[in-house]
Amino acid sequence: MDAYIVGGYRSAIGKAPRGSLRFTRPDDIAAAVIKRLLKDFPQIEKSEIDDIVVGNAFPEAESGMNMGRFLSLMTMESVDVPGSTVNRFCSSGIETIAIASSKITAGIADIIIAGGAESMSMINIGGWRLIPNPKIAKTNPNWFLNMGLTSEMVSREYKLSRQQLDEFAANSYQKAFNALDNGYFKEQIAPITIRENYYEDGKMKTKESIFDTDECPRRGTTLEGLAKLKPAFSLDGSSTPGNSSQMSDGAGFVLIVSEKTLKRYNLTPIARLVDYQVAGVDPYKMGVGPMKAIPKVLKHAGMNLNDIDLIELNEAFASQSLAVAQGLGINPDVLNVNGGAIALGHPLGATGGKLTVQLLAELKRRNKKYGMVTMCIGTGQGAAGIYEML
Amino acid sequence: MIRRIKKVAVLGSGVMGSGIACHFANIGLEVLLIDIVPRELSENEKAKNLTLQSKAVRNRIVNDSLAAALASKPSPIYSQAFAKRITTGNFDDDLAKIKESDWVIEVVIERLDIKQQVFEKVDKFRKLGSLITSNTSGISIEKMLENRSYDFQKHFCGTHFFNPPRYLQLFEIIPSSKTQPEVIEFLMDFSSRYLGKTPVIAKDTPAFIANRVGTFSIMHLLNNVDKYDLTISEIDKLTGPIIGRAKSATFRTADVVGLDTLVHVSDYIYQQTNDEAKEDFKIPTYLQKMLDNKWLGSKTKQGFFKRIDVDGEKKFLTIDFKTLEYKEDTRPKFSIFEKTKGIDDIRLRMPIFLNDKGKVGDFFRDSFYSLFQFASNRIPEITPDIYKVDDALNAGFGWKLGPFQSWDSVGVAQTVEAMNNANYKAAPWIYEMLAAGITTFYKVENGLKYCYDIESKSYKEIPGQAGRLSLEVLRKTNVLWENTDTSIFDLGDGVINVEFHTKMNTIGQGVLQGLNKAIDMAEADYKAVIISNEGDHFSAGANVGMIYMLAVEQEWEDLNLAVQWFQKTTMRMRYSSIPVIAAPHNMALGGGCEICMHSDKVIAHAETYMGLVEFGVGLIPGGGGTKEFALRLGDSLSTGDIRTNAFLNRYLSIGQAKVSSSAYEAFDLGYLRKGIDEVVVSRAHQLAYAKKAALQMVEKGYTQPAPRNDIKVLGLEVMGMVYAGSDGFKTGNYMSEHDGMIAEKLGSVMAGGDISQTLTEVSEQYLLDLERKAFMELCMQRKTLERINSLITKGKILRN
Questions:
Q1: Residue range A29-48, pLDDT digits in tens
Q2: Which end of chain B is more exposed for a tag (fewer CB within 10 A), N or C?
Q3: Distance (Å, whole) CA B190 – CA B171
């Protein structure tokens, strides 16, 4: 018994905290993506959907109240479909896909919508009320090290120069511009209608617009320009706003079904999740997480790195991306071929869903078989999932 | 009808115009700032497809100037939020809006024809009866009036701000023959009380008062520099703080101002005047050559000084007037400083300098004798009043002693004779004055200041003293008690004032004794206590020298008692039966800030730079400041607040040793309390206002506050963040290990210790004990002592 991905969409990714989606709540972004996804499957009876599972890294405030359940209420026109919210920080959006696939494979569900959603415009990293355990913070303060500093720790350990990081970043930008200019992302994006009420000249006014294009990559970004930026996290550090992932807002979801459902509705499978593994590393250098997760998932699936045609390695920071790519000997030609989070943005809990949608579309475009989505995770973890095109 | 100023229009947004606009915004007014429409589109505007009709383009010049001003340091605005009070516009589209303005100030380019064109338009739009003034620094006010309406002429005069308008005190008011007296009276009061300036009425003579006399002083020196056999560095040493002038002294100031500006003013005076000093305003050949070479000072990177970097270290070279080459000066050394060492009063130093037998004496004699000659001969030409010349130089050039005040300090009679022998000639009225038996220009009698008046040939009370209080004037008659570090003054009406007079007004045993004594006295026989002084700074903080000494000798018992006494004193300020008011100005740091924070009310001068900066010397505030931050945090919380963030804001004020850039910013940083503490813009009115505020509290019925046992602390809820945060700062190399230790102790005291239940109510004494314990523990750290030692011996903050 297997679980099949039959469709997937993502939102265009907005800049945070001042981008196009800054006033669009994460549940609204997610609902728009799910509605677009369901539109392709009019034959599926909504009440037969078993669950909506949403990944989110800071499930509080606008993302609180078990967003998954609200997404079902908002999109299903029925109270029948349940919903849940899953958190494994930056891998939340693929964790949900793994959970959904496992449930279906185990025979306890047939149709699940899984992915992730995040608004970094509305909820900052760490959440609104960060209260570390004082006992642990005293004995192991570096378990709470902020993400930027973990990036510096990776640069220090792997002796990565500022120049190397900036070159990696510039390359990510180049690939992203190329993808955008060629319209590679167009079909995978669910357009979102943004309605904004704003105050001007003593009155409330309203404007409406459609958001359907990734807005993070800043045109005119050059290696020279990147080299001028000041370190953002450490006085003498090398990670800058230019070679780190961009804060952003967005969502990405896939529809996963059982073989039974596939046949019943005569659906065409796109891909399946072959394997998914998470591994733990030192929290203070959480960026190296994939270095442990990738070999783990390959071994478990009985595959080699060479078998993988395309890899989406979330570019939390140029430092950790480089450390992972060099450490594992990843072929640059298969790595983040359309640019990564440094150029396109990293909406934390949404990223796993977003990268999955992006990867499957690119595998299809290139007519390739195996792809991988992998990322580092705050407090020291790495996740990696392998997809097979069908 | 009482004249009210609600809206002000400033025409011209250059450095002065923007600065003036900001200062009006500082005092709460709505400001319209206008400049010309650009003739061409910039590249950027072209790229954005804008046209010359776009608003963004039409207001580009004014918007760019204002933005540059707001970003400049020192800031022209008390708080960036105040900039919202300024609206920008352009001459073509928005000039009609001046019909809403109560005061229109012209600050356009210094050309009579252009000013006249602007005034012609202003005349069309302005509201009848509104004020219209020009900020010219020298152009004839009378000529600007030609062809203007009668109402315009009646309400027009010159109002000359000095750059930067927020910081320089002088405000010259230049009436024309047509200006209504009411306008002048109004401006005198408004500029002083509202704008915090020192108004000086000047006649419509070239460059008015301050620039005429100040420029003379510089130009006489520049024209005679080859006579003195002194280097540039030596002259700057002799003309700086040791004679009560700015640290940048003569040449450095000229470089900062710009040699072109200096030459422009000097040349103008040379063209426009014809008196005994005319030749002194001539531009010396070397200076003209420097100008030709575009060596204009700081803005062209070289003038009298040139900065070079040698192996990453900056060095200043000075110019050789003969060869016009830059060379390195030796560090100036003068034996005469042996004689003036320990004499803090400049007035007592002056005679020593002028009586010196060597080249230093020669230099001072020429400088001051020529100044005395020039200044006395300008009375009554530029003003009939002697004190106005001194006021102008005090406030406009930052001279602690103006020409006549300097002259008083060296003895008028003796000097006149010496001047005569050396071929300098005092004005005839000086001889008349001396012949009448009057030997000083100033005197103080019955708490009032008098100045010699040449017309009546007698002393006249200096006007404008009503409604003000000055400790200096009261010193002879109203001191009730004193010790080496403080004096207690009787301000009348039952209010007494404690004045500190230690070096930088630091706080040690003597100051604590003075504070306790004043409260004792007031509780027994008076109504209220004010803490204020007229030193350069309110207080630079606790005397760390004493802490260092006790710590090095490991006199822990004594140190603990000393800290405890400080705490007891600040607590006494709050828990006494009389109101205690602090009236700080300029720096109020560390212990000085803690004293303000424990007063019943603070009446702060707008230019008050407050901060708990103990972190820099490896300590936390130990005079109740840390406790007070915990108390204010607890009091500020309401249900549902994100307490950790509220904690963090206050924690970082101390943790990053934040100093406010104005009294207004001190509210944001938590040093002043909204609704209780107040800001006064006029330093001259501050003490009188503080006294009124004190009496008002008495009138209302002041009672001693009950002790606090209900201070809500956050305990363990925030400690995780304190530990994790300090580790992050250390990892990012923003903090040293030692900083981390101080940060954790600070957090622990502010959290009220490791208490399990958040919002537990604790007593003030409990927090004071925690604070003192942490303070003592830090004093026992070698690295803290290294920091204190660095501050004492090098005046530098050590990061170790």
A1: 999 999 999 999 999 999 99
A2: N
A3: 11
Q: Do residue A237 and residue B721 have CB atoms under 8 angstroms apart?
A: no
Tell me which of A254, A271, A288 is where a domain ends: A271
Whether residue A162 is found in the same domain as residue A193: no
**Same domain (yes/no): B182, B244:** no
- Three-state secondary structure call for residue B688: helix
- Determine contact, residues A10/A353, Cβ cutoff 8 Å: yes
- Asked if B719 is an interface residue toward chain A (Cβ–Cβ < 8 A), one would say yes
Average pLDDT over residues B364-375: 97
Of A128, A133, A233, the CB nearest to B720: A133
Chain A neighbors of B720, CB-CB under 8 A: 131-134, 136-137, 144
- Residue B330 pLDDT: 85
For this structure, is A346 an active site residue?
yes
Do residue B723 and residue A145 have CB atoms under 8 angstroms apart? no
Is B644–A145 a contact, with Cβ atoms under 8 angstroms apart? no
Nearest CA in chain B to A143: B724
Nearest to A149 among B716, B723, B731 (CB): B731
How sure is the predictor about B20, in pLDDT bands with cuts at 50, 70 and 90? very high
How many domains does chain A divide into? 2
User: Quick one: A13 and A117 in the same domain?
Assistant: yes
Give yes or no for A61 touching B (CB within 8 A). no
| H-run or E-run covering B89 | strand B86-90
Q: Which residues of B touch A61 (CB under 8 A)?
A: none
pLDDT on residue B275: 94
Comparing alpha-carbon positions, the chain B residue that sits nearest to A128 is: B642
Q: Which chain B residues are closer than 8 Å to A145 by Cβ?
A: 724, 727-728, 731
Whether A90 is a known active-site residue: answer yes
Catalytic residue among A25, A272, A296, A346: A346
Query: Do A145 and B727 make contact, defined as CB atoms within 8 angstroms?
Result: yes
Q: Is the pLDDT of residue A1 over 70?
A: no
Taking only the tens place, the pLDDT of each residue in B630-659 is 999 999 999 989 999 999 999 999 999 999
Assess whether A162 and A65 both reside in one domain. no
Same domain, B40 and B154: yes
My answer on whether A83 and A153 are in the same domain is no
**Token pair 């363990």 in the structure block, residue:** B716
Total number of domains constituting chain B: 5
B348 close to B328: Cβ distance less than 8 angstroms: no
Q: Is residue B473 in some structural domain? A: no
Q: Are residues B303 and B437 in the same domain?
A: no
* Distance (Å, whole) CA A226 – CA A231: 11
Chain B residues closer than 8 Å to A157 by CB: none
Tell me, yes or no, whether A329 and A377 share the same domain.
Answer: yes
Q: Name the E strands within B358-494.
A: 442-445, 448-453, 458-461, 479-482, 486-490
Q: Where a domain ends, among B644, B675, B705?
A: B705
Query: pLDDT at residue A306 above 70?
Result: yes
**Does B439 lie in the same domain as B305?**
no
The 10s digit of each residue's pLDDT in B117-173 is 999 999 999 999 999 999 998 888 999 999 999 999 999 999 999 989 999 999 999
Of the partner residues B644, B723, B731, the one whose CB lies closest to the CB of residue A138: B723
Query: Omega into B199 within 30° of 0, i.e. cis?
Result: no
Contact call for A131 and B644, based on CB within 8 A: yes
Looking up residue A334, the CATH number of its domain turns out to be 3.40.47.10
Range of the domain at A279: 134-185+273-385
Residue given tokens 């009298």 in the structure block: B304
- Single-letter amino acid code for the residue at B171: F
Residues B635, B692: contact at Cβ < 8 Å? no
Contact across the interface for A234 and B733, Cβ inside 8 Å: yes
Position of tokens 């019925």?
A: B701
Provide the β-strand partners of residue A342.
none
Note whether B504 and B534 are same-domain residues. yes
| Length reported for chain B | 800
Look at residue A310 and tell me if it is in a domain: yes
Please check whether residues A315 and A371 belong to one and the same domain: yes
Q: Are residues A147 and A77 in the same domain?
A: no
Query: A212 and A116, same structural domain?
Result: yes
Q: Which domain holds residue B60?
A: 7-201
A64-115 residue pLDDT tens:
999 999 999 999 989 999 999 999 999 999 999 999 999 999 999 999 999 9
Q: What does the pLDDT look like over B433-486, one tens digit per residue?
A: 999 999 999 999 988 999 999 999 999 999 988 889 999 999 989 999 999 999
Residue B205 backbone dihedrals phi, psi, to 5 degrees = -115, 160
